[in-house]
Amino acid sequence: MHRLGLAAARAAGDRRSEALMLDQLAVVHCDRGNHAEAAEDAKAAYEVFTELGDHRRAGWALNTRSRVGRLCCRYQEALDYGEHALEVLTEERDRQGAGQALEQIEQVHWRLAHHRTALRYARESLRVHRELRGGAGEADALEMISRILRRLGRVDRALHYARRALDVRERLGDRRGQGEVLDGMSRALRCSGRLDEALRHAEDALRIREDIGDLTGVAVSLISRARVLENLGDCPAAFADATRALRICQDFRDQYGEAEALCTIVQFHHDSGQYETAIRHARHALAIRDRIGDEHGVASALNLIALVERRLGRHADARRDVDRALALQRRMKDGYGLGKTLNNLAEIERSAGRYGEALAHAVAAFAIHARAGVGRGERIA
């Protein structure tokens, strides 16, 4: 439909309609994981709108370019486009467009683990969208606040915001958005140890995403379900989900998702005693996360590598990797991740026979998790 509209606009020489169709095509390509095509169409739309002097629409095209850049893990580019869009749309007094720009900026900061900065932009986005009487933008902001709070270890508050986001999505009939929120709720529930609820939410999210053909979303929900199944002891089913997710991410060249799938698979190789295979996959995931600037993911991958190194008796190597993870998490103020890493360090020291150090790290980890309301459903990964 969009391609027919684009062809008709070009045939009629209607440049403005052509640019509108290009921008809409870019959004569709984003939703389907076709990032190269999305980048090309968004760039073309921006150039036409700029040539026509339509600065407001050019700002919306910049929002699309920011989204494409983020999905391709080009974070500085995504941030530049988002900030430029915010500047243009604020000047044009387009509050809705400015709210969208705030969302793009917060998403980049989320990926870069700048959690406090992301939270500030998300709250401002929520304020703007509420002034505009809510809608999808309000749900997006609520969902992002929920994600950030979960990452900061405030699981109960994260679930509170997620439920509010889900209410908005359901009221709007937004099935794609419902899938995203349900997946986020599954991850939060898993963090709090409520595994049966987490599994139900992951399966609901997966069903919606399969129904609407959202393959990149399917991969995300497969990883979520795999992690819950692994916690519940159903390793064969979990491994099948993670392997399917890895294939989807590789097909779509989704490096962020590929690293997530690899880290999930590492757990299964570790649990089955295939330590060399596990550490090879973990190092591959670490290399991807280093390359795309995913510092939260780097810390998680380092923890996985340390977990395997401990099993192999390489305690000094394990301590080195955990120390690097701790440094990243302290700088990011990632309380929840810090608790997991301290737990990992306690296991390393116990394995090495350094019981006093192990007890001190375990007590520190317990204190962090107790403050955050975290349950027992979470593994190191």
From TrEMBL:
Gene3D superfamilies: Tetratricopeptide repeat domain (1.25.40.10)
InterPro entries noted in UniProt: TPR-like_helical_dom_sf, TPR_rpt
UniProt lineage: Bacteria, Bacillati, Actinomycetota, Actinomycetes, Streptosporangiales
Domain of life, per lineage: Bacteria
Name of the protein in its database record: Tetratricopeptide repeat protein
SMART domains: TPR
